[in-house]
Amino acid sequence: MDIDLIANILFATLRTGTPLILIALGELVAEKAGVLNLGQEGMVLMGAVSGFIVATVTGSLTLGVFAAIAAGLLMSLLFGVLAISLVSNQVATGLALTIFGTGLSAFVGASYVGQGIEGITPWIVPVLSDIPLVGKALFAQDPLVYLSWVLFIGVYLFFKKSRGGLVVRAVGENPEAANAVGMKVTRVRYAAVLFGGAMSGLAGGYLSLAYTPLWTEGMSAGRGWIALALVVFASWKVSRVMLGAYLFGAASIMHLVLQGLGFEVSPNLLAMLPYVATILVLMILANDAAKAKLNTPLSLGQPYRPQV
After folding, report:
1. Domain containing residue 31: CATH number
2. Which of the two residues, 261 and 173, has the higher pLDDT score?
3. Verdict on whether the full-model pTM lies above 0.90
4. Domain limits at 17?
5. Is residue 198 within 8 Å of residue 206, measured between CB atoms?
6. Rg from Cα positions in the chain
7. I want to staple 215 with a disulfide (CB 3.0 to 4.6 A). Which of 52, 61, 63, 240 is the partner?
């Protein structure tokens, strides 16, 4: 492979991994607080369709991004009311949210299918973008890719350096003990869930406004589920999320690379690579259940009923 091809692969890998970083960071924060939200797929789709419609109607991509975030927030608020306030089963509620979001996004966006817009344009850094091999990948991306790096650093520092990170982890490990020392468990869990919803909505907005600036039903293509596996793959460690997201991103574009290199393999079979990679990762993690259990927040998925 020549240097230009490698540069293009790196560029595409970072773009493809960006929505996975956003969704996974949001889910990681929620799970650190003890809340298992399986509704990412529905929130991503609602973010994508809301952002696209608002951008199309208003002509403002910025408003489209904010609309995508707002849609994710509203979906996560619905989940929070059911799973946190009403103490419903988190797994069932998350699955219902995905089904609801998938159906509602298809209904709301039916008249916008196939329409295209001028998407978010890259911010090209002069001189630095001309660096061989890595210049295009690191310095010729769109603003949301750069934002994903900032958010990654922010979440990392939040858990590494701040008291707030300690509070979130304490709530996720033992909510009863956290409540006993004065921590607002319900408030912390709501904040974590809302952050996760905002990140999923932003990921949806990235898909419909930057990655492929159009709306089509089911355009998330299972990224919400892949991000859930990514959190487990990262062992709930923020530092590993970006690496895992870009590995999955590379797997997602590898079928295009292999076809371009002339491999005589069915394109449908090659398109399965990211999902095969997800299954393999989960199988590997299942063989080390003790280590996975050690890193898992102890109260993950368990309802918390405040003492009256």
Report:
1. 1.10.3470
2. 173
3. yes
4. 3-113+149-295
5. no
6. 20
7. 52
